[in-house]
Write a structure and sequence with these properties.
Elements: H1 2-17, E1 28-32, E2 36-37, H2 40-59, E3 63-65, H3 68-77, H4 91-100, E4 105-113, E5 118-127, E6 132-134, E7 139-142, H5 145-179, H6 183-196, H7 201-211, H8 219-232, H9 237-249, H10 253-266, H11 271-283, H12 287-300, H13 305-317, H14 321-334, H15 339-351, H16 355-368, H17 373-385, H18 389-403, H19 406-418, H20 422-435, H21 440-458, H22 468-485, H23 493-521
Parallel strand pairs: 1-3, 1-4, 2-4
Antiparallel strand pairs: 4-5, 5-6, 5-7
């Protein structure tokens, strides 16, 4: 955890101080380091590749190229001779030199003979603000002008996609862990997003929200993240609302109220700010006053949507969903474009057990956000809870068909499991492995699925014969979890092996309980 805190501190400082484009340019500023080489032919390729890459970067609206003299001076200032570029450079020195010239990205690599007329080109992108190095798959090229020019075009075109893909992959994994309340793993994954993109506002906001949770209890870190977001965007409504939440948890209620008021002024559709404002009133012992104030405002002006909005959210915050729902419905009758509020209404219906109404309202939002697969997953979940299994299955199949979402595969397997269709559940896992053969993310998700299901069964404690099938099922699922988790590679392998160790312990406990029951029964 100390490591996480240190990384976050670095990232937050970077987020506050690093511009999108160093040197005042419109695009990200890029330092292009001469690729290393091992013989005369690879040197020729390195020289040509450097020239073509410089042309591509200079002509791209996404980038601005740092002058060669400035780049070499930066390395000389930290004690590295630019004449030694041909032998390669330690990544930490690249980060240090890049920071000295306000670079956003640094490109470097090496050219090696690969046999015949083929040469292997290793290339890397350093995100200077975080020190993170991204290493795409090596490329093969011939010693010929046209192939080298084509490779330069490919590298320049793929720089952003590789950086973005790394951030997106970590963000998806963070959200997967968040959906399972696995806060330590979620925090690790969000920090991996920020290593690549220190100003990723969604990741910052979601990370800060986790820090505010009572079972994480890291309000100082949450405050730092929200403050960093405001340094980037001073009127960011979610960040203001987040600081209100931090103040609320610190029992600084007047301060919280001020932040929520600012958040609402910045974004009148910020439901979290209205909810927080209601909480602030309640925490100050002013629940009756808050309700009376909002009711009086409505009595004098029934069209006061802000007061009705706050009142509906106040009731929802008090878990009085039956009172909240009519107000939320009234607001949406007048303002059907309040899509965030409709999702709040969907949640209120779900809390009262009316999953069908929850799904119907979420579907209205989905029709406006038809390219939002995460929302489609929520709709499918509501449909499954409402017993609309066919609708949930069809929706998840549609998500899988259009996006190949691993999470959709996992939810589809869950729907089949909960409806007693174990064969269909296993078929979904088989399809997932066919779609992502050898994919560590797929193995991780399936392994975690079996681990969570098996662990829940393993926790059944009463030593009676009726529980033996449950423990036997737990052993089977935990063994399946171990099989999948042992195939996980990369930065998730550590987390996977932690689950493997826990699964083996749970199996031993189940076997011991089965043995004791069998002995007592004789």
């Amino acid at each position: 955890m100390k490591k996480i805190v240190m990384i976050l501190s670095v990232l937050l400082l970077a987020a506050c101080s690093t511009a999108v484009a160093g040197n005042g340019q419109d695009g990200a500023s890029v330092g292009l380091i001469q690729f290393g080489y091992s013989d005369d032919n690879s040197r020729w390729i390195s020289d040509k590749l450097n020239d073509f890459l410089a042309d591509e970067i200079e002509s791209s609206p996404d980038f601005s190229l740092i002058e060669k003299d400035d780049l070499e001076n930066a390395f000389e200032s930290i004690g590295f001779d630019p004449d030694q570029f041909q032998y390669g450079i330690p990544p930490e020195m690249i980060t240090e030199a890049g920071a000295g010239i306000d670079a956003d990205l640094m490109i470097f690599g090496f050219v090696n003979p690969a046999g015949g007329d083929q040469y292997q080109v290793l290339w890397n992108v350093v995100v200077v603000s975080s020190g993170n190095t991204i290493s795409p798959a090596p490329a093969m090229v011939q010693k010929n002008t046209d192939p080298v020019r084509d490779l330069a075009e490919t590298i320049a075109a793929e720089i952003n996609s590789h950086v973005g893909a790394r951030a997106e992959e970590s963000l998806n994994m963070a959200r997967y862990h968040r959906s399972n309340s696995n806060w330590p793993s979620a925090i690790t994954s969000y920090l991996q997003v920020l290593e690549v993109d220190p100003e990723h506002m969604e990741a910052m906001g979601e990370l800060a929200a986790i820090y505010t949770k009572s079972d994480v209890d890291s309000l100082d870190r949450a405050e730092s993240v929200y403050s960093a977001m405001l340094a980037i965007e001073p009127e960011h409504s979610s960040a203001l609302s987040g600081l209100g939440t931090v103040a609320l948890k610190r029992e600084q209620y007047e301060t919280a109220k001020d932040y929520f008021d600012q958040a609402i002024a910045s974004d009148p559709d910020n439901t979290a700010a209205y909810s927080g404002l209601a909480n602030a009133y309640t925490a100050m012992g002013m629940t009756d006053e808050a309700v009376q104030s909002f009711e009086s405002a409505l009595a004098s002006n029934p069209q006061n949507l802000q007061a009705r909005y706050a009142l509906g959210l106040l009731y929802a915050e008090l878990d009085d969903y039956d009172q909240a729902i009519p107000h939320l419905e009234a607001i949406l009758d007048a303002r059907p474009d309040y899509t965030n509020l409709r999702l709040t209404l969907a949640k209120a219906y779900a809390e009262t057990g009316n999953y069908s109404a929850a799904a119907d309202n979420a579907i209205v939002v989905l029709e406006e956000r038809d390219n939002d697969p995460e929302l489609a997953l929520y709709v499918a979940q509501y449909e499954a809870w409402a017993g609309r299994t066919s609708d949930a299955v069809n929706r998840l199949e549609s998500i899988i068909s259009s996006t190949g979402s691993r999470q959709a595969y996992l939810m589809l397997a869950t729907v089949y499991r909960d409806s007693g269709q174990r064969g269909s559940m296993q078929s979904v896992f088989n399809r997932l492995h066919s779609a992502y053969p050898g994919d560590p993310v797929a193995n991780y998700m399936v392994g975690a699925f079996y681990y969570q299901s098996g662990s829940a069964k393993a926790r059944v404690s009463e030593l009676v014969p009726a529980n033996v099938p449950t423990w036997e099922s737990a052993i089977s699922e935990l063994n399946s979890a171990i099989t999948y988790l042992n195939q996980v590679t990369g930065y998730r392998s550590g987390q996977a092996q932690n689950m493997v160790s826990a699964a083996r312990n749970a199996i031993s406990l189940c076997e011991e309980k089965i043995d004791r029951v069998n002995r007592y029964s004789q």
